[in-house]
Amino acid sequence: MSGMNKTSFFQALVSNVWFERFIITAIVLNAITLALETYPAVMTSIGPTLLVIDKLFLAVFVSELVLRISVFRLSFFRSGWNWFDFSVVFVTLLPLLGIAGLGNVSALRAVRILRLLSVVPSFRDVLSGIGRALMGSFAVMCVLSVILYVCAVLSVKFFRAASPEHFADLDNALFTLFQIMTLDAWSDVVRPLMSVYPWAGLFFIGFIVTTVFVLLSIIIGVASSAINQPESDRKERDLNEKLDALIASLRK
Length: 252
Known about the structure:
Number of domains: 2
Largest sheet: none
CATH topology of the largest domain: Four Helix Bundle (Hemerythrin (Met), subunit A)
Shape: flat
Helix content: over 70%
Distance between the termini: 46 Å
Number of strands: 0
Number of helices: 11
Structural class: mainly alpha
């Protein structure tokens, strides 16, 4: 097989949908073997076999990455998703390098399951939507951070004497207000304060309404719109293609 034919063959191979499905299947099966490794009884009985299988999966992922780099060469690194794949595979190779100071470095093998996020198109759409949502809601998150900071400073000034375990300093106050934002047992924090400061309920209810019901709702709305955008774009593209086909048939 000539060099050109080899290149064409490998290009067709890495672009084939069955090759993509093979990699997805390998990642899912590897996730199962890694899950089995968390059970001591399983490791006692078939632990060595699972470790050999894990190394085979790693060989598959490294071979796939080398194959794609050899086909696309420098253009491979122009895609952020390819950088993601490269980083994941590199991290999972660290256990074989025996680098000291990283603790239980073998646990990093679980990171390779993140490859599903890049090889499954619908997962990529979700992650792309999250990225767009973060950029779109950046201003809202800045406003939320400013309000959280101001309320934390005020709560220290107002409530430190009555509840030092929650509002002793800025760090504690920020953590407490974040807990209140999640609505996690917030009344257990607020009710004791209301026995000392009856108006404390208004302060915290206003904080919850502003941060949770208004600002976080805006962020969720932006995120939902950004995640659904790829599907809307596909539907619009399909509609335009159908209209173009209809116009072309009418002209005939």
